[in-house]
């Protein structure tokens, strides 16, 4: 299914289903012998959604295709390292005194429930209305209680989300910890640029941002064709009569602005960590098929007056 400028989705459809796939990876990590983190709510979301392509990680062990099994292992490494990287980012932001958090395209992110937020922390979650409705209903039925003050902001990020965020109590004068996880590849390049322009305008000095961004290799025709072929094989492994999602068809394979460079040009300190570097750090071993995931992990902090005085 192709993308359009005004497309919408439920959690089991289109881009919404990618949140379930990531939840599947978090569930697999949580249930592994030595997990990097624990996210018991990931399995709750999967059970509520039913059968679909997102169950691929549950069925990967029985796959007889060594190539596909290897790629699934690399995906599990990627999602586990990304989750741990962003968890550490929020821990550092909290230690620095930041008490305002914004999770863009929050999907089925459960950090508002599972992380030990300091008193007074407010977490804003932005996503499509149907995705947030599924999430809220599922967790309400499960009896889960957030560990921070949580505010849902139901809006498409291609719309005027800064205005809606302000209307829901966002404080532009307070430093903010921003998460842009698993989002950029599903935005056209011009929409990515607009998103960071808006984020920058809303960020007080001392604000921080974490993101994962596609590398240039993600836009190569060979890479795109390979991902489409792998997605079809994922579907054949995961399918038990449930919903299927062609993840590769949802992303925009376009040349993009370098996020680290853009942040530095706009007064942020910023750095990038490759997937192999992150996996080696968290797993203590080389990444499985290290070149299989064309993405990088980015963190940044908006400079303050004191930074400028010290430089």
From TrEMBL:
Pfam families: LCM. The keyword S-adenosyl-L-methionine applies. One of its GO terms (biological process) is methylation. GO terms for molecular function: methyltransferase activity. It is an enzyme of class 2 (transferase). Keywords: Methyltransferase, S-adenosyl-L-methionine, Transferase. InterPro entries: Ppm1/Ppm2/Tcmp, SAM-dependent_MTases_sf, SAM_mthyl_Trfase_ML2640-like. It comes from the Bacteria. Its EC number is 2.1.1.-. PANTHER family: S-ADENOSYL-L-METHIONINE-DEPENDENT METHYLTRANSFERASE YKTD-RELATED (PTHR43619), S-ADENOSYL-L-METHIONINE-DEPENDENT METHYLTRANSFERASES SUPERFAMILY PROTEIN (PTHR43619:SF2). Belongs to the UPF0677 family. Exhibits S-adenosyl-L-methionine-dependent methyltransferase activity. NCBIfam families: mthyl_TIGR00027 (TIGR00027). This is S-adenosyl-L-methionine-dependent methyltransferase. It comes from Mycolicibacterium madagascariense.
């Amino acid at each position: 299914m192709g993308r359009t400028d005004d497309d919408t989705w439920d959690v089991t459809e289109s881009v919404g289903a990618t949140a379930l796939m990531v939840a599947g990876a978090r569930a697999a990590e949580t249930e592994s012998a030595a997990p990097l983190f624990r996210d018991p709510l990931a399995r709750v979301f999967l059970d509520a959604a039913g059968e679909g392509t997102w169950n691929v990680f549950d069925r990967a062990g029985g796959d007889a295709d060594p190539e596909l099994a290897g790629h699934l292992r690399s995906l599990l490494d990627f999602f586990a390292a990304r989750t741990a990287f962003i968890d550490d980012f929020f821990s550092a932001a909290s230690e620095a005194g930041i008490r305002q958090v914004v999770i863009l395209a929050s999907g089925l992110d459960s950090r508002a429930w599972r992380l030990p937020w300091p008193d007074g922390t407010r977490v804003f979650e932005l996503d499509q209305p149907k995705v947030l409705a599924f999430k809220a209903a599922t967790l309400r039925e499960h009896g889960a209680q957030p560990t921070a003050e949580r505010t849902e902001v139901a809006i498409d990020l291609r719309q005027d989300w800064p205005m809606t965020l302000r209307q829901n109590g966002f404080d532009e004068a307070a430093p903010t910890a921003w998460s842009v996880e698993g989002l950029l590849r599903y935005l056209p390049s011009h929409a990515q640029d607009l998103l960071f322009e808006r984020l920058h305008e809303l960020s007080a000095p001392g604000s921080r941002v974490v993101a994962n961004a596609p590398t240039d290799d993600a836009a190569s025709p060979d890479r795109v064709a390979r991902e489409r072929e792998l997605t079809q094989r994922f579907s054949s492994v995961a399918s038990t009569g449930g919903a299927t999602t062609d993840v590769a068809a949802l992303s925009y394979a376009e040349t993009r602005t370098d996020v680290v460079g853009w942040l530095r040009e706009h007064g942020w300190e910023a750095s990038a960590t490759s997937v192999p570097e992150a996996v080696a750090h968290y797993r203590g071993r080389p990444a499985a098929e290290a070149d299989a995931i064309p993405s990088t992990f980015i963190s940044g902090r908006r400079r303050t007056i004191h930074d400028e005085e010290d430089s």
